[in-house]
Amino acid sequence: MNLGQWIGLIAIVLSLYILWQIREVLLLMFAAVVLATTLNRLAKRFQRSGMTRGFAVLLSVAIFFAGIAGFFWLIVPPFAQQFQELTYRVPQGFERFNNWLDALRTRIPNQLVPYVPDINSLIQQAQPIINRALGNSFAFVSGSLEVLLKVLLVLVLTGMILADPIAYRKVFVRLFPSFYRRRVEGILNQCEVSLEGWITGAFIAMSVVALMSVVGLSVLGVKAALALGILAGFLNLIPNLGPTLSVVPAMAIALLDNPWKVVAVLILYLIIQQVESNFITPIVMAHQVSLLPAVTLIAQLFFVTFFGFLGLFLALPLTVVAKIWMQEVLIKDVLDQWGNNHQKDTELVIVSEAPISDEFTKVNDPWETESSANDDK
């Protein structure tokens, strides 16, 4: 390798190292781009009705913040009330269960008494875990503050991008060589269309899951059915893990009414998850974004390993964008052209050698020379 190649290799390695060090910032920037794309699509719909760009953007942002405020207004008060009730009813349940175990010990043979669990001993064994969790409360508060600052950063970046998206797009395009900028424009258009498709599909699936959860929990008579259904729909944005997380508060609140409702809620959420994963998501996403289920799961594992919870939340849009760039740049522009160039070079060599071989045959073939001499005679 010459000096220029060594300099290029060192520059690539340093660039990758710097990108790795600022990966969290890049992920926050991508979250802002996804949110700006969503609000920009809503603003474009308002513009088609005759609104100006500025008023359409302000209306889109107002709807977004109203949705966030409405989400917390519907979720937080019922949950606070139910979980406050849960904090004093769970110990009562433990005490009742312990009394039932004591009565069971008096009715069973003495040989089986040691096998009956003791609630007090279980609580004592769990005490170190509880103390450790309480000891980490300060870290939880500081982590919450960090999350709040990141959310504010994403919102500020979203507002800046949404104010003039074309200017930021031109800056990104100019990072590429001049001969490739038109190609980058086309790839960015495909990314925008795919992100809009994912947003539409995710919103449809989220709405269906929320509606099914609200109806099912209302039929079972579970308290705060509306809040639990909205939470289930929101957590459905996290594929595979979201439905599992949403069942925990629903089962906890169902425990306040009757123990059999816990089993009924678990069965209900299993049915909803199966309907969502086998029917809703494949049908909706097939028309919006074509991603294989295994690719989705691998992408989740990859992004949650390197980027944490935010990577898990953004795994699908990241996968959609990464798929387009790999398909257009790596496959079409590099690998496919590489094979075509090699084939063209091979054909060029064969064609260029063919006349030389014929001339050599005509000149050096003795039979043809002798026949030509006889013809001349």
Explain how this protein is built.
- Keywords: Membrane, Transmembrane, Transmembrane helix.
- InterPro entries: AI-2E-like.
- The chain crosses the membrane at residues 6-35, 55-76, 147-172, 193-214, 292-316.
- The protein has a domain at 23-107 and 136-175.
- The protein has 13 helices and no strands.
- Helix content is 87%, strand content 0%.
- The protein has helices spanning 3-21, 23-48, 53-107, 119-135, 137-163, 165-173, 181-220, 225-235, 242-254, 259-288, 293-313, 315-364, 366-376.
- By secondary structure, it is mainly α.
- Residues 137-142 and 356-377 have low confidence and may be disordered.
- The protein starts with a helix and ends with a helix.
- Helix 7 packs antiparallel against helix 10.
What's the order of the H and E elements? HHHHHHHHHHHHH
Residues in β-strands, percent: under 5%
Helical segment count: 13
Which spans have pLDDT < 50 for at least 5 consecutive residues?
A: 137-142, 356-377
Distance between the termini: 64 Å
* Sheet having the most strands: none
Class from helix and strand fractions: mainly alpha
* Number of beta-strand segments: 0
Rg from C-alpha positions?
A: 32 Å
Average residue-wise pLDDT = 76
From the spread of the alpha carbons, the general shape counts as elongated
Q: State the helical fraction.
A: over 70%
